[in-house]
Structures are given as structure tokens and as C-alpha cells.
């Protein structure tokens, strides 16, 4: 049937090619354009392309006429409603009607329990028969709905025979359901229908929940669900079923989550299952790239979910050990990818960076962790510039932002002592910001010039905050007059340094920053210091500020 179907498609494409030849010839005669001339014998080789039609028949016209781009046709709502959604919706309605019909016949004593089971299997067989007939008649969407409905009826009938009537034991019911899932998967590959694969995947995940067991079998459950994921993932990759690839990944974790909530003995079995998934995904990314960025994206998502499962199910020792192994393994993959110039490099670096981040968060409880997170974020961003990967830059930026939020929360409380975790965080924040500015200057050049100007002003303000914080801590042993005097003196010295540096390097922005800081110091003295200090300190403050202002003005005249 598949060969006949391909032959029909070939004949249809040959007719379409002939029509396109006539249309192009008419356009060429009427417009005198330089459209490509299509030879009359072009349709003949179409039969030789039959092997390729099995995988991508819809691309034949595009391959035959690479220079012709047809105008996109308007969406056919009639086709979408009557051929796509109408059979799907009413197949669901039909299944509900069958269930209610069985219930009504059972309540009325019309159908015995064995006859109901037999009738269910006969109904599913009829759906399969008519599904094949519809596919042979070139009605693929209707055929898919009928075949998908047959899988649903088969599983519902098996569930009734096992769970409700007790005709079938645990092992037999499990085996029958596996057969129905395999049948749905065969339908999917046989007719190249991704929807049937998604349905079979969902049915397969439900199988353990449809079996009545008297004891917990967590290991068997996780092994089955993991093997099911691997099987459907292979089919998705071989057939390039993107939706099935995502659905299989999501359903595995959904099934594990439901089992974890309902079972007290899942233990490390779930952790082993998700680890196998992560390793299998990594293996496909390294050696079987059929879906491109979809695989690398799922690999990142799998790492995040795997880490969460490990944190829930494993002890701190095994959790930390797994993070160290993840970091070492993906760092090695990143190094090899860098040597081979592989596009896997930013993804491997991202997983390595977050492995290290999670390890630090789980092992270091003190505030020093924030400084280490800032440093890791800086290194990750720098690597993004080195390998020219926006993905890696964003990954590092997320880590750096998390560190900056933590640093802001701690530094807002002020220093308790000069030699403390706050000093380490201040130095890490200032050092990494200066480093990021230099990295941007080296690798981005003029593209990020305006961004660097903003960063420089931010660094200047942070440096002022650090000097103020450190001065207040050091001045705690003095009286109030001396504390105000020392803080104002530090501000004035910082302003002098900025102005002198701006004069030396010829940067107007730096000079103006110093002048603005000098005026801010004057405002601070007037509104905050004068009401709280003695007359002698007032005199010292105003004499010092006045003298500095005049001398700096003289220096500016010298520069001019």
C-alpha cells in the first residue's frame, strides 16, 4: 500500500510539474523575464526519486525548481476544521459514547462482562480496519484518527478486563498494554504520523497506572518509564518528530513526579532514571544530531530537572559528588568542542558553569558565596566573548545578576568589620565590573561604547559606596564630630583624585564627575554635618572645602 501511495504522489507531482512548466513558459513570453527554462523531459526522472519520497515527498517540487518560490496560499479553514479537527473531536465524543453505552448495557443486564470485553476488542479491530481503508483511499488525517481511537479502545478494554472484571492478571494486562503501545508506535512509523506517536507515548506512560498491584515496585516502574522514553526518543530522532521528542521528555518527568508523590519507596530509583535520561540525551547530542538545537535545548532542560531530582532524592554527599562529576564531564566536553570548533561548546560550558554554581550554593553557607558567584558569572561572560556565543553570555549574565542581587542585599546592611565577608563582596563586585568593562572594550570595541560609559559611572558610584562604608566602619571608635569629618574628607579626596585624573588623561566626563562629587560633598556638609557637629568642625569643613574648590578651579584653568 505504501508503494501504491508513493506512485500516486509521483503521478500527482508529475502533473503539477507539467502545469508549472506551462505557467513559466507563459510568463517568460509575456514579460520577457530571465526566468529559468524548464526542459520538457524534466518530469521523467521523477520516478527515480521514489526512494526519497518515502521520507520527504513534499520537497520534490522544491528540489526540482529551486528558483521558483510560490506565493503562500491562504489558510484553508474548511480543510483545517473538517479534515483535521472534526474527526479528532468527534472521535473523542465517540469514545465517551462507547464508555457510556457499555455502562448502560451493564446496568440493564443486556451485556455480560465477557461479552463486553470481546465487543471492545472487536470495535478496536474495526477501527484499525477502517483506518487502513481510509489511508489507502488517500485520507491520511481521518485514518490517523481512527487508528489512534483504536489504541484508546484497546487500552480501555484491557483496563476493564483487568481492573474491573478481573479476567486478566497483572502480568498479562501489562504485556497486553505494551503490545497496544507498540502497535501505536508502529502505526506512527508506518504512516509517518507524529500524532500517533504522541498518542502512543501518552498511552505508554499510563500503562503502570492502569495495573492493579498489591505492593510497591518503584524500581520496575522507573525502569519501564525510562526505557519507554528511550524508545520513543529514538523514534523521534529517526523520524525527526520534534513534538514527540518534547512530549516523551515531559511525560517521563510527569510520570516520575506522580509516582514520587504516591510512593514512599521511590528513593534513589528516580534519581537513577533521570540520570540515565541525561546521559542518553548527551549521547544523542554527541553522536546522533537529527533535531539540531531541539536536542541541545532539551539537554539543558534535562540537566536542570535532573539537578532538582538529585536534590530531592539524594543525600548531600551524593548530590555534591554528582555536581562535581557533571562539572568535570561537561568541562571536558567543552574543551574538546573548543578544539573541534563544535557548536556544542556554549551548551557544555553552560552546564559546567551551573554545576559549579549549584555545588557552591550547596556547600558554602556563608556570605562569601556571593563573591564566588560574582566571579563565576564574570568568567562565564568572558568565555562567551572568547567563543563568540550569545548563549554563553546570557548564561553567564544570569549567574552574575543572581550574584549582584545577593550582593546588594548584604551590602545594604553595611559592614560589621573591615576584614569581613562584606569586604570580600565589595572587592569581588568592583573587580568583576572593572573586568567586564575591559572585556567589553577588548572584544566588543565600539559596539558597546555607550554601555561601557554607563558601566564606568556605575563603577564610580559603587567605589564611592565602598569608601563610605569602609570609612564609617573604621571611624566607629571616634566621636560623632570626627566621624562626619572623616567621611566628608574621604569624599573630597575622591573628588580630587577624579578631577586630577581627568585632567591628566584628558577626559571631560571624569573631570565633571569629580566636580559633581565636590558639590555633593558640600550639600552633605550643609544638610547633614552642620546640624550635628561643633563650631570648630564646621570651621574645618568649610575652610577645607573652600580651599579645595579654589585650588581645583585654578587647576582647571591650567588645563584650559
Automatic annotation (TrEMBL):
Tree of life domain: Bacteria
Listed transmembrane segments: 85-102, 114-132, 141-165, 171-188, 195-211, 217-237, 244-262, 268-288, 295-312, 318-337, 344-362, 368-387, 394-411, 423-442, 454-473, 485-503, 515-533, 539-557
Coiled coil spans: 3-30
InterPro entries named among the record's database cross-references: DUF2339_TM
Keywords: Coiled coil, Membrane, Transmembrane, Transmembrane helix
PANTHER family from the UniProt entry: BLL2549 PROTEIN
Pfam short name (any one): DUF2339
Name by which UniProt lists this protein: Putative membrane protein
Keyword Transmembrane helix applies: yes
Amino acid at each position: 500500500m505504501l508503494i501504491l501511495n508513493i506512485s500516486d504522489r509521483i503521478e500527482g507531482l508529475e502533473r503539477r510539474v507539467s502545469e508549472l512548466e506551462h505557467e513559466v513558459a507563459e510568463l517568460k513570453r509575456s514579460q520577457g523575464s530571465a526566468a529559468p527554462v524548464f526542459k520538457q523531459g524534466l518530469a521523467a526522472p521523477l520516478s527515480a526519486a521514489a526512494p526519497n519520497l518515502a521520507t520527504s515527498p513534499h520537497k520534490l517540487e522544491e528540489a526540482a525548481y529551486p528558483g521558483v518560490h510560490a506565493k503562500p496560499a491562504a489558510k484553508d479553514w474548511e480543510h483545517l476544521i473538517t479534515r483535521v479537527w472534526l474527526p479528532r473531536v468527534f472521535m473523542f465524543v465517540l469514545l465517551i459514547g462507547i464508555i457510556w453505552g457499555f455502562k448502560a448495557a451493564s446496568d440493564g443486564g443486556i451485556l455480560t462482562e465477557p461479552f463486553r470485553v470481546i465487543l471492545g476488542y472487536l470495535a478496536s479491530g474495526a477501527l484499525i480496519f477502517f483506518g487502513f481503508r481510509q489511508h489507502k483511499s488517500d485520507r491520511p488525517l481521518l485514518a490517523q484518527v481512527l487508528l489512534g481511537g483504536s489504541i484508546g479502545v484497546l487500552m480501555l478494554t484491557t483496563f476493564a478486563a483487568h481492573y474491573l472484571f478481573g479476567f486478566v492478571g497483572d502480568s498479562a494486562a501489562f504485556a497486553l498494554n505494551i503490545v497496544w503501545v507498540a502497535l501505536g508506535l508502529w502505526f506512527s512509523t508506518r504512516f509517518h504520523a507524529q500524532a500517533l506517536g504522541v498518542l502512543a507515548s501518552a498511552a505508554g506512560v499510563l500503562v503502570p497506572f492502569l495495573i492493579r498491584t498489591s505492593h510497591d515496585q518503584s524500581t520496575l516502574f522507573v525502569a519501564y518509564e525510562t526505557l519507554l522514553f528511550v524508545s520513543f526518543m529514538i523514534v523521534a530522532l529517526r523520524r525527526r518528530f520534534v513534538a514527540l521528542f518534547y512530549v516523551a521528555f515531559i511525560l517521563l518527568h510527569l510520570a516520575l513526579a506522580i509516582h514520587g508523590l504516591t510512593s514512599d519507596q521511590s528513593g534513589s530509583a528516580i534519581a537513577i532514571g533521570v540520570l540515565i535520561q541525561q546521559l542518553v540525551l548527551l549521547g544523542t547530542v554527541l553522536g546522533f544530531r537529527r533535531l539540531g538545537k531541539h536536542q541541545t535545548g532539551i539537554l539543558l532542560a534535562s540537566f536542570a530537572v535532573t539537578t532538582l531530582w538529585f536534590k530531592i532524592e539524594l543525600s548531600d554527599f551524593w548530590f555534591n559528588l554528582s555536581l562535581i562529576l557533571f562539572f568535570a564531564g561537561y568541562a571536558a566536553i567543552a574543551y574538546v568542542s573548543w578544539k573541534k570548533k563544535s557548536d556544542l561548546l556554549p551548551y557544555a560550558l553552560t552546564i559546567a558553569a551551573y554545576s559549579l554554581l549549584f555545588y557552591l550554593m550547596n556547600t558554602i553557607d556563608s556570605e562569601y558565596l556571593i563573591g564566588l558567584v560574582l566571579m563565576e558569572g564574570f568568567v562565564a561572560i568572558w568565555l562567551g566573548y572568547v567563543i563568540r556565543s550569545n548563549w554563553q553570555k546570557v548564561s553567564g549574565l544570569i549567574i552574575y545578576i543572581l550574584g549582584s542581587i545577593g550582593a546588594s542585599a548584604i551590602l545594604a546592611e553595611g559592614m560589621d568589620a573591615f576584614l569581613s565577608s562584606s569586604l570580600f563582596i565589595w572587592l569581588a563586585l568592583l573587580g568583576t565590573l572593572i573586568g567586564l568593562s575591559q572585556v567589553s572594550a577588548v572584544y566588543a570595541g565600539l559596539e558597546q561604547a555607550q554601555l561601557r560609559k554607563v558601566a564606568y559611572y556605575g563603577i564610580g558610584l559603587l567605589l564611592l559606596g565602598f569608601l563610605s562604608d569602609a570609612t564609617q566602619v573604621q571611624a566607629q571608635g571616634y566621636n560623632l564630630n570626627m566621624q562626619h569629618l572623616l567621611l566628608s574628607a574621604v569624599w573630597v579626596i575622591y573628588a580630587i583624585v577624579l578631577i586630577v585624573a581627568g585632567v591628566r588623561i584628558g577626559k571631560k566626563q571624569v573631570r565633571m564627575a569629580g566636580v559633581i562629587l565636590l558639590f555633593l560633598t558640600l550639600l552633605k556638609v550643609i544638610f547633614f554635618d552642620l546640624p550635628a557637629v561643633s563650631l570648630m568642625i564646621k570651621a574645618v569643613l568649610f575652610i577645607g572645602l573652600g580651599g579645595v574648590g579654589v585650588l581645583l578651579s585654578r587647576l582647571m584653568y591650567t588645563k584650559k
